[in-house]
Amino acid sequence: MAKENTVKSKLTPNLHPKLLVTKYMGSKKAILDFVASELIKLTKPGDIIVDLMAGTHTIGYAMKNRCQMVANDIQRYSRVIGETLLNYNPEPRFEGVLLDTFRRFYITNARHLADIFSHGLRREQGMLSKDADTKYNWMEYREFCESYPYYLRETPALGWPEEFSLLFGHRRVEAYKTLNKLEPYSLFSLYFANSYIGVQQAAEIDSIRCAIDKLCDLWLPQRDELKHIDSYRLRCLLISALIGVINKINPGPGHWAAYQHVSDHNLKYMKGQRRQSVWDIFIDRVREFENNLLKNPSDKGPHIVMTEDYVNFMEEVHEYIRQARVVYLDPPYSQGHYSRFYHLIETLVLYDYPEIAFAGRYRVNRHQSPFAHKEKVASAIGKVCEIAREGNAWLVSSYSRGGVIADDKAFRKILEEYYPAKNITVKKLLSVHSKLGQANRMQTEEYLFKCKP
Ligand SMILES: C[S@@+](CC[C@H](N)C(=O)[O-])C[C@H]1O[C@@H](n2cnc3c(N)ncnc32)[C@H](O)[C@@H]1O
């Protein structure tokens, strides 16, 4: 066997720009310097980097000043985050007439929802009010949450007036699904209130989502004097900010695979999360993202951001891959599917009133990644190698010990089917994984493989 070409690395302090939209499993944020410093060594200014599975675009945001990014991910929210982080220039800022008009659209939808969902909203107000802590115990708040109606609920929602329960019925939601953009926007109120978010929060999310479409798809394109505003990417910024809000108010550990049930132990925390104002956090997030983007502009764009399965993507951007200096692969390394963990923000972006299933209320027909399957992962990596080695690009891949592929030796073995052993090197870094949700923080080893063209 060829001699191992391995280097142990130390994490250097923050050297590269970061902008976190949401916590993300496998995000390279915590080990950004480990990856980015290597990419810098391999590239010259102006080179192309192809990021096959960009997730929250941590790599693109760090590299967009140096290289042109050609980025992709199968999840739609990733494209929204990518257009924001890589391509949006926040000039003019989201203020003045833009904010005033947006607020008007928001208020109209919110008033409408306040009327329709008044039963739920009023009961929640009582449960979350200051004196509620002495009036209701944790079991009563839990009962309120667990008995709340939602679309496709299998057991009857007891204790609610019939006209309220009927709002969540199949035929009514079908109408929303068929008549795209029917108002008032109500998806989160009908699907997720009292699961991952509160009732008032669901109404605020729906109303902000409505205002985003109305401002960016309808109002702005009709204003000749505002033609200079990039309404598509402003839309991406605003949806990214809303993703940031949903991440902040989530009582869970940074994903939406399951929601927390109220208990004696978490009552105070749950109520604290549910009392937060979606609108206020939204405005904060927009400001925070704009300020960050102004500090990290890029003259290497426009960067390409796509949403495809990686094989289709590689075929579509074949010419870029032939010219690229680096093809970067950061695949899922665990058996959990991103389409399950992040279904809520996928639905926020698509806003398509999907069919849902299971206790977590996941979208049905979710993408199942071959990288999460033991028997499929080797050939999935093989496809990347086959296309990447046709050009002159380095193939750089991140992976973690203890994933679907057990360790660096097993990963290297797959790469050796496509690249000569002497052309493959691996850097390793000891790091701590938060394991999103599991109490123990686990020490692991991060790998960075480089395959020479
Ligand atoms: C480890 S994460 C990438 C994290 C990213 N580098 C970051 O820092 O945020 C893996 C990504 O692979 C994407 N993915 C999984 N299967 C895919 C496929 N078949 N095609 C494209 N993307 C895929 C997931 O949606 C997920 O965002």
Structure description:
The chain is of the alpha/beta class and 453 residues long. The protein folds into two domains: 6-72 and 302-328 and 374-451, Vaccinia Virus protein VP39 (Rossmann fold, 3-Layer(aba) Sandwich); 96-293, no CATH class. The chain has 20 helices and ten strands. It has helices spanning 32-42, 58-63, 76-87, 96-116, 118-128, 132-135, 138-146, 162-166, 170-178, 187-191, 199-219, 231-249, 267-275, 278-295, 310-316, 318-323, 338-341, 343-350, 377-388, 408-416; strands at residues 6-8, 48-51, 68-72, 304-306, 326-329, 356-357, 362-363, 394-400, 424-433, 442-451. It is globular. The chain binds S-adenosylmethionine (SAM). S-adenosylmethionine is lined by residues 24, 26-28, 53-56, 58-59, 73-75, 78, 309-310, 330-332, 338, 369, 371.
Topology of helices and strands:
Elements (H helix, E strand, L loop, with lengths): L5 E3 L23 H11 L5 E4 L6 H6 L4 E5 L3 H12 L8 H21 L1 H11 L3 H4 L2 H9 L15 H5 L3 H9 L8 H5 L7 H21 L11 H19 L17 H9 L2 H18 L8 E3 L3 H7 L1 H6 L2 E4 L8 H4 L1 H8 L5 E2 L4 E2 L13 H12 L5 E7 L7 H9 L7 E10 L8 E10 L2
Parallel strand pairs: 1-9, 2-3, 2-5, 3-4, 5-8
Antiparallel strand pairs: 6-7, 8-10, 9-10
Number of domains: 2
Work out the number of β strands.
10
Report the sheet-strand fraction: 5-15%
- Alpha plus pi helix count: 20
Taking Cα atoms only, what radius of gyration do you get, to the nearest Å? 23 Å
Q: Determine the N-to-C terminus distance.
A: 20 Å
Give the overall form: globular
Query: Uncertain runs with pLDDT below 50, 5 residues or more?
Result: none
Task: Report the structural category.
Answer: alpha/beta
Largest beta sheet: strand ordering: 1-9-10-8-5-2-3-4
Question: Please, what is the average pLDDT?
Answer: 95
Percent helix range: 40-55%
Order of helices and strands: EHEHEHHHHHHHHHHHHEHHEHHEEHEHEE
Q: Which ligands does the model contain, each kind named once? A: S-adenosylmethionine
Biggest pleated sheet: 8 strands, mixed
